[in-house]
Amino acid sequence: MQTESHDILIILVFSTLSMFSLATFFVYTVYSYQKRIIKKQKELFAAVIQAQESEKERIAKDLHDQVGPLLSNIKFNISLFDEPDKLIQFKKDNNKLIDIAIDNIRTASYDLLPKVLYDFGLVDALEDSCELLSRGSKIEVIFSCENQLRTELKLTKQIELTIYRIVIEILNNAIKYSKASLIRVQVALLNNYCEIIVKDNGIGFNKDLILADRNTGMGIKNIFSRIDILNGTCNLQTNQSGTTYHIKFKTINLV
């Protein structure tokens, strides 16, 4: 009788210890998972902040390097003008410089706050930006999408702005580094998925080397960080014949 009681007691003790160990393991697993989630969120937040600072720095540099010299040339032309017979050429030269300055300022303002996005939506904002970039650079930027996409793609303005920043970052990188003559931007909507393809015919780059280096490739890393925020995917293919970003994300969870 005492032996049976002793056995039962041992079984109860082992059962209790097993349940305690299992509960401890479960709590530890949940705690570890939450720590990983918090760490990932912090990394994403830091990447977004870095992207914002990089954009501000780039825009400030563009204004300083592009608009500043144009305005200085206009001022210099005005200081030299003292012959009435040169009025026509003077007006022609300065009007050209002013038009270039206006385009540069408009491009910078679109990067800071794309008003057309808030007024008309993502598709119109991307199309408008592609036209501006074509006029402001030697690269032809062609935008295409199905007409119904303008009304069918319904996202919050914050999500639209995030997507807009992704595409603009890709375009700016291509214009600065790819040596391409043509960039195509295509937006499509299939069921609950939105696909964005940005393709250039430039020289490509070593994506593995850039992504592995902490001191380079912030633009590309910012692109992937923003795509992670959307829970989307990005298939990046690059070689000596050009670079293609194939971005895909589910729209049903982003409204």
Gyration radius, in Å:
28 Å
Q: What is the chains' assembly state?
A: single chain
Q: Which whole number gives the mean pLDDT?
A: 78
Number of extended strands = 5
What are the segments in which pLDDT stays under 50 over at least 5 consecutive residues?
none
Topology as H/E string? HHHHEHHEEHHEE
Architecture overview:
The protein is an alpha+beta fold and 255 residues long. Helix content is 67%, strand content 15%. Helix 1 (2-80) runs antiparallel to helix 2 (87-112). It is elongated and about 120 Å long. The N and C termini lie far apart (69 Å).
List its salient traits.
single chain; 255 residues; alpha+beta
Q: How is this fold's topology laid out?
A:
Blueprint: H1 2-80, H2 87-112, H3 115-120, H4 122-136, E1 140-145, H5 149-152, H6 157-178, E2 182-190, E3 193-200, H7 207-212, H8 218-229, E4 233-239, E5 242-250
Parallel strand pairs: 1-2
Antiparallel strand pairs: 2-3, 3-5, 4-5
Helix pairs in contact: 1-2, 1-8, 2-4, 4-6, 6-8
Summed up:
This protein is 67% helix and 15% strand. It is of the alpha+beta class.
